[in-house]
């Protein structure tokens, strides 16, 4: 099973952080997601979790199988 995308359909790039305000990924992380290996996707999700913690946001709930 592939690693699910953290996209929650709130797609707006923050001018302060440079991350999507919905999923906290960078433009590069968003655009490479469809080509990324599961290992690379997990690395992105670790970065997303760190960013969400830094911003004081709740962790995203991930499910296997979806991928955008």
Characterization of this structure:
The longest helix is centred in the C-terminal third of the chain and has 17 residues, at 38-54. This protein has 68 residues and is mainly α. It contains 2 helices and no strands. 34% of the residues lie in helices and 0% in strands. The radius of gyration is 11 Å and the shape is globular. The protein has one domain (7-58). The chain has helices at residues 27-32, 38-54. The model is unreliable at 64-68 (pLDDT under 50).
Can you write the helix and strand succession as a string? Answer: HH
Structural class: mainly alpha
Helix content: 25-40%
Q: What is the rounded Rg?
A: 11 Å
Percent of sequence in beta strands: under 5%
Tell me the distance between the termini: 14 Å
Mean pLDDT: 91
Low-confidence stretches: 64-68
- Tally of contiguous helical segments: 2
Question: Outline, from the CA principal axes?
Answer: globular
Number of domains: 1
Quick recap of the structure?
Pfam families: DUF1289. This is DUF1289 domain-containing protein. The chain is 34% helix and 0% strand.
List the helices and strands and how they pair.
Elements: H1 27-32, H2 38-54
Provide the descriptors you would attach to this structure in a database record.
68 residues; disordered C terminus; single chain; 2 helices
